[in-house]
Amino acid sequence: MLKKRIIPCLDIKDGRTVKGINFVGIRDAGDPIELAKRYVEQGADELVFLDITATIENRATLIELVKEIALEINIPFTVGGGISSVEDVSKLIKAGADKVSINSSAVKNPQLISAISKQFGSQCVVVAIDTKYEDNEWKVFVHGGRTPTPLKTVEWAKEIEQLGAGEILLTSMNNDGTKTGFAIDITNEVSQAVNIPIIASGGAGIKAHFKEVFENTAATGGLAASIFHYGEIPIPVLKDYLKTEKIEIR
Amino acid sequence: MIAIIKYNAGNISSVQNALIRLGYQSIITDNVNEILDADKIILPGVGEASSAMRHLKEKGLDQAILRATQPVLGICLGLQLMCDFTEEGNTKCLSIFNTQVKKFPPKDKVPHMGWNNFSEVKGELFKNAKGDVYYVHSYYAEVSKETVATCNYIQPFSSAMQKNNFYATQFHPEKSADVGEQILKNFCTL
User: Fold this and answer.
1) DSSP code at position A18
2) Any chain A CB within 8 A of the CB of B138?
3) Domains of chain A with bracketed CATH
């Protein structure tokens, strides 16, 4: 049986995990490699690193970081943030990233999805969708959720699949940070509309939220950040719980 | 020395990184002599079959692989390229394994992406290796005489194959945590 994936997300700024993270038991809480290693030991199924500054100056720092992560980590990892060309992807893949996540640049230039997919294979292209429910419909937002687009979420997901994306990382902006649970309705709608894997993101606050999203949608992964970083829900505790609840978990 | 075959496939450095973690020396090369002089050969692979096969042929790497007498390990696309034929780009492959590679029917999410098991295991490659491993593929090798481990996703397929000195896994041992490391270690100590 294919297992559901539990995926911690690390926000990276200037080669460090962003401030405020306070991981018990790790001295240098700002070191993304230490955090990543800890998550791997705890049984994380994949890791996602998002470069939240993603400026040209920080790009070189990110490449170095990816190289270091690749040497240390024996599970797949995705790198995202500010990727706008095949050249960007090439550098990250060469540095050792397994997948890249693109968001705003995919909306701006959908052909980028097919270009990356052709060169590196669809398995390497994760398209992130930030979505918000507004005026009775789920719409796509870009630039870290700051800019609305006319795209409707389900339609955009279908287009992404056609263009050759291997996976969709779907974040509900309405749920993100609320700890009230994943957006079941849109996650279900998108996961039924396309045949590529969906990672649900945004809103996880308690263990049961993961059970809920895996039982009520076809999402094959659940992503979260703060609940893991702050040690609110340790990954082994979450995985044990899900196994008890008869969810297929590694 | 382990030769990792360099061709137009992604994730080659992941394989080398995994070998570094295990303490084995390796070289990424497309030089036929270097490949055939190595103690072990790894054909990694994430990519598209027809262009990968074309690239191997251009460099004479297909013949080098076929001439190898030392242990050879194909990973993911590497396994598929060691089969007879793949539906991906309708590509004639190396014909080490007498097996066809087909596209998964869209009865579930494709690619088959994530952690899954392997069972009906035979052979020394899997000594002390138990648990789930990481798969990511849209095409699969049918189960055949040369299958040494199977997995079931949409339908049963070859999770690992072996014939003489040729070994192959559909999953990525270099990305499969402790279980994958054990399998790579088993290969390195063959």
Assistant:
1) P
2) yes
3) 5-244 (3.20.20.70)
